[in-house]
Amino acid sequence: MNTNNDLEKLIENLPSFIQDYLHQHGYQNELIEIVLDLGRRPEARFTYGPEYLSQKIISWQDLDYMTQRISKFSNENRAGIERTLHRISCIRNRQFLINGLTCRIGRAIFGTVSVIRDLLESEKSILILGRPGVGKTTIIREIARVLSDEMEQRVIIIDTSNEIAGDSDIPHFGIGRARRMQVSKTEFQHQVMIEAVENHMPQVIIIDEIGTDLEVLAARTIAEKGVKLIGTTHGNCLENLVKNPSLAELIGGIQYVTLSDEEAKRRGTQKSILERKSYPTFEHVIEINALKSWIIHENVSSSIDLLLRNLYETEQLRQISLPEKVAIKYQTTDAYIISSRNSLRPSVKRLSSLEPLWSDINKSKIQERLHVTAKVLIIYPYSLSHNFIKEAMKKVNIRFILTNDIKKASLIIGLKKHLKHNLKLKQLAQQKQIPIYSLNQLSIYQFLKLIQNFS
């Protein structure tokens, strides 16, 4: 990876005693931001932790010295340095005087998106999730360059805070041939998004920090017009979008559905459940909780459906271990613990024993019956949805048929709490010598453990 950060252009605007310290520092490439607060010592925050830059405390004169050398602050209290990617944010007191500055280092890092090159080559929209400061803006800046320069697509960036292409009328070279549309005020971002589609015929639109209902609606409108979207929003994981009413529409929207008594019993769920309303605006979602380790959801529809059913989902973890070396791993995570993904670890659950509901059926006859239908497993599901079984069976190489005729079944599978009350089913299965297996809970892992015994 190659890095261009124009750090010297920021340092020369700092007070002289801070400049001297930074010029002698050996880890300038690890610098994230510089914090100047009135009456406190100046502080630098590196990737490995914070560090004071001087014994001298910051005065009004130090703050005035810097604010006079940079551009004017916007309504969002942000400013920049001409032809750079650095961002300076201010804190004001009750008299609207600046008494604190946060100088975030902006970098154009080339090669960061090699790990998702295949996703960029697809025609599907991509949403990037991550907490503030994790590097989302740096990533979409490189995406803009790759799409416009290497893939020769018409790319337009909606640059609301001038963080993607810099604080200048001339965009920073880090975005390549992509065009940049600036936004005068944050509340007008959704209007500029629609204007970009109507006036400039883009193939790709890039939006940073989607956050309001109007911006979400504009993104959906753009996607329905056939334009590819690359966007970012705050959040640690996919579950954060589900729980955020404003952002849920990005992944299809969430609604309550009331099932009939029979359907709720068949599914083994409550009558009121959550379901996805429509197709997601973004087909791919990338979770970034570490700079070189990304979680990829290549099928957002499937991931959301499993999440709403509190089932396990298989995630794709892509890591950059060495320059130009990408490792792709798959891991299964329980939907209940997705929100605790700061230290992502595969969930471990004790599977309850999978035994026949009764044991007075002759085992040799059961084995004979299963052997006859070994080529195709005929399953009679009781209190289990067909969609649940189909999703689970995709993970094993076994041919199967779902039947509603119990006489044709080679196996009956259902939830234990429902099976134990159905005496007629038990009597019929005993007559036909059909084994019944019960699941203590609606779990794909329990189901697969049972099915694999017949493979």
TrEMBL record:
InterPro entries: AAA+_ATPase, P-loop_NTPase, PTPase_dom, Spore_III_AA_AAA+_ATPase. Residues 122-278 form the AAA+ ATPase domain. The keyword Transport does not apply. It comes from the Eukaryota. Gene3D superfamilies: P-loop containing nucleotide triphosphate hydrolases. Keywords: ATP-binding, Chloroplast, Nucleotide-binding, Plastid. This is Uncharacterized protein ycf45. The keyword DNA damage does not apply. GO terms for molecular function: ATP binding. PANTHER family: KINASE-RELATED, P-LOOP CONTAINING NUCLEOSIDE TRIPHOSPHATE HYDROLASES SUPERFAMILY PROTEIN. Transmembrane segments: none annotated.
